[in-house]
Structure of MFS transporter:
Amino acid sequence: MTSTHTPDPAPAPHVPPAATTATVTAPADAGGAGDRRRWFALAIVMTAAFMDLVDVTIVNIAIPSIQKDEGASFSQIQWITAGYALAFAAGLITGGRLGDIHGRKRVFLLGIGGFTLASALCGLAANPEMLVASRILQGGMAALMVPQVLSIVHATFPAHERGKVFGLFGAIVGLGAVSGPLLGALLTEWNLFGLEWRPIFLINLPVGIAGLVLGSRFITESRAPRALRLDLVGVALVTLGLLMLVYPLTRGEELGWPLWGYLSMAGSLVVLAVLVAYERRKSARDGSPLVELSLFRVKSFAAGIAVQTVFGVALGIFFLVWTLYMQFGLGWSPLRAGLTGVPFSIAVSAAAGVSVQKLVPRFGRKVLQAGALVMAAGVLLYIWESGRYGLAITSWQMALPLVVMGLGMGLIVAPLTDAVLSQVPREHAGSASGLINTVQQMGNALGLGLVSVVFFGTMSDRLTPARIGPAYVDAFQNALGWVAAVLAVIFLLMFALPGRPAQHVEGDPAEDRTGEKEPALA
């Protein structure tokens, strides 16, 4: 169950979770009505994956418009994105297990229906509080919907056809990475029917309803014969620990850093310790823990989890402050900000393809480390250009650092999962895959919370109109300095990854924990 959600104006590729359990339903036979049904089913789940991806990438570009229209505080702005990431992270593993137990089709339809309802609530939100609550609900529904996508593909298509199917998913990822921010910018700029930012959510309604109706007809039900049990206590502990850490970070600056905030953040470590103790007992009792703690005895996996978490923090910080810098600080329109991010998206996609197909098989771990250094170089170049040109900086002047950053990020995101999983025992591949992507979402939520410290924390509470632009430029440079430092930490952590990560390519399927062979996604 893998997913890399990055809520940003020009995001990294987002890959729906891979199927990690065997199914009791054999793929439909090629030809005839069965063949048509499975391709209809593929189109439906691909559309759902695209809707999820676009919904994440579409929001950040509209956040300044939301803030102006709704009068949202900066902490509420952070929670519009962090709340989604937190709910998605907390529910990912459980969403996959629910599909294994109760049927992937059933849970997928529940997820897409709930996601559509939550989108309507977002679009009709009467105040910032309702919008934040609706975004949290939307993230929870995505956690039900998204893990089923490639599980349904696995149940529907024979092994020799899955490479072609996953190639189509790659095309969808690339399309969503570019079209999401642009669609968000256009919908916000056009102000359809005077609705301001609301169409970015309401556009999901016809798509979601169509997916619900067609999915109920064309998707074939499947379950896992030996599904792991739910660990709702583990989910509750993870969610509580993250809330106790992220909430004080987002509200601390606004409230003057009260004592309860520090106590809450310290208490989150206690909750984490309780989680570890509970998961040990859960593993010994029924073998279905939320977190398989034995995985952390594998050095490369433990280091990889750290890399994924810290990388999520870096992305959470950068992409939110970037859109605030362009639209609040520089006064750019949503469309101009969206178009500025296109070179970044293209660079990420191009480098990701080259890294997996050409570079990693030859140079191994060094490619990922080079990616961290190249991305850090792009960040430092961006800091320099922001300081040199100030408020007069143009989109084309930003293109060079964004392309450098995109190339570095592309070298990391595509092969990282394989590098982390390469030394994990086969029987734990599914649990490890779900955990990798869960912690990246958690890191993303933490990074969004840290924006209060590294960005808003550097600005005065009372800014004159003449000082707003320069203050945002200074805050942006400070935040990017932290991002560069985080990337340096990532470079060092990568020394613990295997020198030659296992590569999963078409025709070289990986075996899941049940022993059934299936392709793995980078």
About this structure: The radius of gyration is 22 Å. The CA atoms of residues 210 and 396 lie 40 Å apart. The first strand starts at residue 510 and ends at 511. The beta strands are 510-511, 517-518.
